[in-house]
Each structure stands twice: as structure tokens, then as C-alpha cells.
Amino acid sequence: MFNANKSKNTPATFVAALFGFLIFIQFFSSCTNKERNGYCMYEIPDSTMIDVANKTTHVIHVGNNITNMPSCSQIATIDGKEKYLLLDETNIYIFDWNSGIIEDSISTKECGALNNYSGFTYISKDSIVVFNSTEGRLFIINSKGQTLSKTDIHPNYADPTKSVSTINGLNSCRISLRKETRPIVNGFILGCMLQAKEYGKIPVSEEIDMNSGNCKPIVFYPDVYTENNWATTYMNSVYTAYDQSGNAVYSFPILNKVLRYNADFTKCDTIIMQSRYDYGIKPCNNSQEQIEEDESLEKKYYTSQLSYADIVFDPYRSLYIRVVEHPIKEWKKKEKFIKPKSFIISDINGKVLSETPIVDGSKTMLSSNMHIYEKGLAIGTYNKDENNIYFTCFKINK
Fold first, then answer.
1. Residue 361: other Cβ atoms inside 10 A
2. Long-range contacts: 281-290, Cβ < 8 Å, 24+?
3. How do beta strands 352-356 and 341-347 pair?
4. Residues 6+ apart with CB under 8 A from 96
5. d(Cα 17, Cα 385) in Å, to the nearest integer?
6. Gap between the Cα atoms of 239 and 253, Å rounded
7. Backbone angles phi, psi at 351, to 5 degrees
């Protein structure tokens, strides 16, 4: 124990203490895996793989009749050129990515009235998956807006083990098409997972047979979700991406690793993509009842914790990029809670290459409108200009 009355050490004692301290520092800094407060830490080098020093701004000109805050959008290669697609009410609008000018639109009128939680995935001109969140209905349409197939999806709220409670068709949880008539839908449970423990395994992904309407659960929440209280919404989210081999990658907010499933979901491996800033994510101290009475309690909990968010696949450089969301110090009621971010990059072999330090201005960046394009990473930003969408773009070096 340190004694203030003996603070004047002899030179020999001081040298010995200093030498011991240097040995400790060398050991601590040289370890690749560290235990800190019982939580395994991974050393990830800084790098310029995401060139934050030379970020640029890209503009999509939506005009005054199309939303500049799309609920679902996508960058896709069509006829050999990069296009930006966004969903707004009864159309999927298509913009040339380079010029930012609108070129075409695809009608979604046959899919019914779409709300802010409805989504789409453009796979090809003859395979566009549209999810109507209001009606709980899934469609496959072509570029002319014609319905090729459709089916109803009715969540079983009484038993969440039999269906995904809340399907999400947005960017962060995009619907994929495993086979021509078998979409993979993803979702998350609303409510305290700890209270759902009695149900056993709870799905986050299901394969839908468009011909019969049958649902087959294929991916479930990790067990850690039913071992502690992680509040009711934000930490329950699931984020997905699909690589060029057809593998599906899942990022969960409280998990320091991502889960990767092969194309037919028969095998799963893990990639440790843990932030260097992750000292351990703590469970929530408030009950579901308390949160339902005062939703600011959950926001306060969420903003106080580091968490993991979107994951995207970069097909141009064969990389996985995972978003890390960092705590907001002293968050106050009614304040926005867009959390500061950093980005972890891994190659397809699971080797973590870097974590780009927290990006200046990232509190205005909307990872809900984040995309990979040929030159790098584009992230939509919060702005009040209703006629344009502004993207902050980062070159990815490899």
C-alpha cells in the first residue's frame, strides 16, 4: 500500500520501481489479447485505410418532391454504372451516382402503401424485393413495377420463437434473395430479451417461401441476450451484410464479434471485430416497466455505452467494415443521440486490419444511409437542405 509519509524513495528503490513500471508497460502494450476488468481486449492498429483526412462531399439532387431522408436506399451497379436508389412513398427513384441527377423510377404501387419502416433490395431488373411493413407483406417486382410474387408475413407476437417479431427491410438489415423465390428477412424483438428467456431460441432471420408463405427460422439471437437486461430496443437491433461468396454477416450491438454464415446457413464462424475502445458493455439497470414509463431512461442507457452497429461488405476491396458507436458524455433529454463513430476493417479471412479513430463530425453522420461505392465509403449526413442529400465520402486504401 502506498504511504504518503514515505514518498521520498531512495534512488535504488526508485530505479527498481521505474524498471518494473517500464516492464509492465512493455508487457501491456505488446499483448495482442488483454484482460481488462475481466473483458478481453484486442489490439487494433490505427491506419489510413479509411482516409478521414481527405474526406469529400457528394450530393444527390432530390428536388422538392422527393425525400432527402430516405428510410431505405442503396447503391447498385446497373448496366455497368453506379446508381443511387431510394424509396419514397410509391416509387423507387434511381439517380446516377456520379452526377447525382435523377434518371428513372420504379413504381411500387402494386406493393400497397409503404411507411417509413418499409424497405427494398434491388438485386437485378427482374428481382427487386419490397417489404410492406404496414401490411406485413413481401413482394418481388421487376423494374416495370410488376408483381412477380407476393406473400403475407404475420408475426406471432404470442410466441416469438415461431417468427421474427419485427421485420426490418431497411439498409442496416437488408432483405436478401437466397433463391429466386426464397427471400431472407431479418428483424429484432421489441422488449426486454431477459423476459423472453422462457421462449428459448428467438429468431432474427427467416427464409420465406414465396410460393407457400412458410417461414423457416435460420439465425437466432446469441444466448447472451437472454442472460442480462439490455433494455428494450436499441441494443436488440441486428445488422446484416452479404459478401461476394454469398456469406451472411451479422453484427449485434453488444457482441464484440460478428457471426458469419455460409450461403445455405448450415455453418457459422466468427470474426473478432472488437473496438480498441471497448472496455465492456454493461447491462441496463432499469426494468422494462421503468423504460415504458420514461423512454428517456433507455436513451440515457444507450448513449452511455459503446455499442456496435452497421456492417457493410466492400466488394471492390474484399473487406468487411463495422461501425462502432461511442458513448455520448452527459446526454440530456430531448437532445439528438447520433453517437460518435469509428470503423473497424477486416479482410475476408477474418484478419482485423485497422480501426479508424473516431471521425470528426461523425455525430451528423447517418449510418442508416451508409453505402460502399467504387472509391470508398459514403455516409449520408443530417442536414436541413430539403432539395439535396449530402454524403461524406472516404477513400478506402488497400
1. 12
2. 281/253, 281/254, 281/305, 281/306, 281/307, 283/228, 283/229, 283/230, 284/229, 284/230, 284/231, 284/235, 285/229, 286/229, 286/231, 287/192, 287/229, 288/191, 288/192, 288/195, 288/232
3. antiparallel
4. 81, 82, 83, 84, 103
5. 60
6. 9
7. -85, 120
The residue among 130, 27, 138, 135 whose CA lies nearest residue 71 is 130
Residues 6+ apart with CB under 8 A from 206: 163, 164, 184, 185, 215, 216, 217, 218
pLDDT of residue 168: 83
Q: How far apart are CA 313 and CA 44, in angstroms?
A: 19
Q: Which amino acid is at 113?
A: A
Tens digits of residue pLDDT in 85-96: 999 989 999 999
Q: How far apart are CA 303 and CA 193, in angstroms?
A: 19
Question: Any residues with CB less than 8 A from the CB of 91 and at least 6 apart, and which?
Answer: 105, 106, 107, 108
pLDDT at 160: 66
CA distance 191 to 166: 11
DSSP per residue, 244-311: TTS-EEEE-TT-SEEEEE-TTSS-EEEEE---TT-S-PPPP-S-HHHHHH-THHHHHHHHHS-EEEEE
**Helices of type H across the chain:** 11-30, 288-293, 296-304
Helices (DSSP H) in 186-245: which residue ranges? Answer: none
Predicted TM-score (pTM) of this structure:
0.86
**In sequence order, what are the beta bridge partners of 37?**
none
- Residue-wise burial string across 50-71, b where 16 or more C-beta atoms lie within 10 A, e elsewhere: bbbeebeebebebeeebbbbbb
Would you call 181 helix, strand, or coil by DSSP?
coil
Question: For 238-288, what is each residue's pLDDT tens digit?
Answer: 999 999 999 999 999 999 999 999 999 999 999 999 999 999 999 999 988
